[in-house]
């Protein structure tokens, strides 16, 4: 098992909050994380239909058996428990009483806000970061291998090929969650929508165009997109709000939380196919933004990450923010060869943003990281060494 960076923050929050929740996509390693971090806690999986039935039919009686030092896995499956958890927490008020995990961000946070607001620390566990693999001596053979495979732990622990893993992941987890828990009935149409979303990876999102391509209404497309975001399948990256004298694109960019899933949806069957694919640059950019996001989530922080593009298509791929101001400017190139022109837009816009040269970066797929006269050239494999939250 590859240790997860989030474990340290999980222990810290359990010392201060009576309830700590770990949510994230299915198969991201939540159950393994909480069980290994709290080995003396009793583990209750609400995926088990018998246990789920007992908990939903008599939540008060069920919780009387388990009122402290308990892990409830997939807690969103039994929303009836939340009001009674509140009563136990309020009467005892002990730190680390309950560790909750769940795969549906929307359903889980809705119940938390209704019943456990102010009593719970909330963390997100995404699939493995490249930095976690590297620090534990498990780096993939190449960057394209990593982008093609993605970070779901079972791919590595069980040595399952991505072309076998992801179709089953989609049918077993995504389809089931969408159908059973969120009430989407047009599963075939939804799966078509999901595949077409993959073709938008790394692009500015045009919801009307996406809806037209799927032959659905814009309203339905917006609802389905919200479901994918709530299920930790994809996310939108918003533009930085200040224009610096330029007319800006205001629509968000679209990404997946895991590049392996996106590559599979695009019909890419090997790292070699990815290398020659028209989607190579988009997927590499996706891999970079997710790696940056994981730097935030692994320490319990919300990402302060944006992009910047003006109406003349001048773009800075990513802007990080610190203390309410632009902090780092990042350009992404999927090539393994460095060219100084990669810094062109960064050189133009960064001075207006107040970003100094030491915080200007080009991330590429080459092996060498070094300082240049324009800023820092960073290999994807060294992201963790250059970007700290």
Based on the model shown, name its key terms:
Rossmann fold; Arc Repressor Mutant, subunit A; alpha/beta; 44% helix; 5-stranded parallel sheet; 389 residues
Short description:
This protein has 389 residues and is α/β, with parallel strands linked by helices.
Main-sheet strand order equals 8-9-10-11-13-12
Distance between the termini: 25 Å
Helix content: 40-55%
Structural class from helices and strands?
A: alpha/beta
> Main sheet?
6 strands, mixed
- The name CATH uses for the topology of the largest domain is Arc Repressor Mutant, subunit A
How many helices in DSSP terms? 18
Domain count: the total is: 2
Low-confidence segments: none
CATH architecture name of the largest domain = Orthogonal Bundle
The whole-angstrom Rg is 22 Å
| % residues in beta strands | 15-25%
